Each structure stands twice: as C-alpha cells, then as structure tokens.
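Hi there. Long-time user, first ticket. I'm pasting a complex I've been working with (about 434 residues overall). I'd like to know whether the download I got is complete or cut off, because the file seemed smaller than I expected. Thanks.
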Amino acid sequence: MHGYVHDEIGPDELARQEALYGPLAQAVRELADAVIRTEVPEETVREAQSEVEAITKRLREQQMESSYGIRFNADGHARAWGNAVVGLRNPVAPPLEVKRDPVGKAWSDFHLGAGYEGPPHLVHGGVAALILDQILGEAAGAGGKPGMTGTLTLRYRRGTPLGDLHAEAHIDRVEGIKTYAVGHISDAEGVTVEAEGVFILPKWAREEPATPRERFE
Amino acid sequence: MHGYVHDEIGPDELARQEALYGPLAQAVRELADAVIRTEVPEETVREAQSEVEAITKRLREQQMESSYGIRFNADGHARAWGNAVVGLRNPVAPPLEVKRDPVGKAWSDFHLGAGYEGPPHLVHGGVAALILDQILGEAAGAGGKPGMTGTLTLRYRRGTPLGDLHAEAHIDRVEGIKTYAVGHISDAEGVTVEAEGVFILPKWAREEPATPRERFE
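Hi, the file is complete. Here it is re-exported in full:
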C-alpha cells in the first residue's frame, strides 16, 4: 500500500537510526521553543535564521520525495517516525512515548511546552484533541482492532496547564468493525479533558486475523 | 490576567517584530520538514545537530520565562504569536492565516506538509481536530462571543491528504454564554472532516459588551 514501506531493517540498523535521528529531532524541538521565547538582539536573531536556512539546505541535498509514511522493520514492527504525535523524527511531535496493553489500553506521561499553547499558559484545546485521538486510537489498536478515526468527541472540563501531563484510554466496546474507546488527559489535580472515539477497521485489514497489532495513525 | 501582556507596541515596532520573528519561525518549520525527510550521510546529520544546539543556546541567552501568552498592541489587537495553530513565532504551527467575518464566520486556506502526518501521506486525524478547534473558535469569536472550547465533535468522512487544504466554520446559534459553531476541512474533492463545537464565554468576559473581538485560543 502506498506509503507503507517494507525496508525491513534489522535491530542494529534500527538502533543506529534511532541514535542518529532522535537527537536531531529533539534538538530542533528545543530550537522551536527558543524561537518562540527568545529576546536576544535583532542581529543574533537574523544570524540564527541564516544558519538555520543553511542547515536545512544541506539536509535537503538527499531526501525522501514526500512524507515519512510507515516503515516496517525486519521483525514486523512499524516505525511511524513522521507521526505528528509520536514521531521520533518529527520536531512537531512532543513526542509522546505511548505504553500499550493488549487488553486494549494505552497511556502516556509527557510534557508540553511553549509550542503547544492556546490560551495563555494553557494547552491549546486542539492539541488536547490531537493527543487524545492518538491515545484512543492506540488503545483500539492495542486491543487488536486498529482503525481510522470515525468520530471523536472531546469534553473540556477545565483548562489544561502547559507542563507535565498524563493521558490514557481504553476500549469501551467493540461492535463488528467499530471499536469504541474512551480516555482523558489529566494533570496533578485530575482530569482536564475527556474523550470518546469510534475507530473503524480499514478495509485492507478486515480479511486479516484480529491479532494485536500496532496502530499507525 | 496572568499571561495577558499589555506591552502596547505601536505599528512600527509591530512591523519590525513581524519581519524579524516571522522568517525565523518559517526557517525552523522548513528545518523540521527536512529533519523528517533527510537521507544525507550520518556525518552531515550529526553536524546539523551540533549546529542546531549551538543556535538554540545563543537564542536562549535572553528569553521569556515561560510561554508567549497573549500580548496586546497599542491598537488593542492581540498577538497570539505562540499559538499552536496560528502563531507567527511558533514553528509547531503551520501557521494558518485565518480570515474572519463579524457575522460569525472564519476560514483559512493552508498547506500541511510531512510534519502533520498520521496514516501514510494523510493528515493525522488529531491535526484535523486541532485545526477545526481553532477555526470554529475563531468563528465564535468573530461573531462577538469568544470562548474556551466546551465540547468538540469531529466526524471523519475520509482521509485528508497532506497538501493544500481549506477549513471554514460559522456560528450555528448562540444560547446565553454558549456559542455553537460548525465547520469542516476540505480538499479539492470536497469535505473530509466535519466538526461542531460549543464555545463558552469565559467568566472574565461576561461583564464586557458583546462586541466583535478576537479569539485567543
């Protein structure tokens, strides 16, 4: 399928790529935070811009034609390294490290800084939705029914402060190709945003046995 | 209010800051895209990482204590330059340029690249939610009732391809402090994701006259 790449790299090559691209992406996340918050003199800002443009030019000398897609290792596990929530190589992603339990649960402890702001010092309501879509989808996938999001409903109980946060989700029920998942985001004081979602098994997966598998969205 | 800064800069200073920080953030957006897609030799990647870290260090020599918050110009308009969807200074934001009509409409034409991927070559379902939260909220604000998101419901009709997209929303109805807004994202072939949201006028705004004003989330 378009965008699913079976490069089937082995464990050594996987470790090499993780150690190479992970720290680069993390460095760019830090840079993005600094760009929002810097108060250095104008000349320093302009120099930074020129240097960033030069680095980008060098990195683009050889590059993939489009986005990262999903790539499969030799062991069958997938790398969603371009994913906007969990992508190891994606500086837009916080990124979340998501834990999964095959009973149909997923959870993550993570930190959101200045780049995820909506109202002052609060997480953007849409960023909460972004994260919950991923966590609910991972719970559905952990339970054996990966899916594309069909519907997603968010209830905002109060503002979510930027900083250290937790998200979790579990499967509520499965009806044929539809998996219903529920979850929430919380800070140290309790739940801030609740979510429920319906995840629909894609057509290409319906003939396969319903074994636990990774979710790629 | 905490995080709302009345620095009340004039038009010249506003123009200077836009011309300074806008291109820097755009350069970092390009860099983030290159980090996801690069295939240059390992040594070039490592050099890029060191250089990025050095730039970040210099930018951090003087910086705001936390996130950008909302800042007000001399003319009363707000700058949400740290916002995760529309922030001029935020490399995480695409950013969207949102048009508004005081009848209670908001819309935007925008481009999403490799950093916003979920399934291969498709927009992450949560990114669609992120953008629709902003656009629906802006429609509510354009119509005179700014608000924090109360609830948000997304219906995914089909996958949204990465690339050139459109989003729009309008106020469906207002009931006291609650503004109901509806909208969608579309590509050249039509609607991909529909949304409806309830936006609740914050307590601090309830005593003020309900004139059209900007929405800050």
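A couple of notes from our side: Helices of chain B lie at 11-37, 42-59, 125-142. The longest strand of chain B covers residues 163-175.
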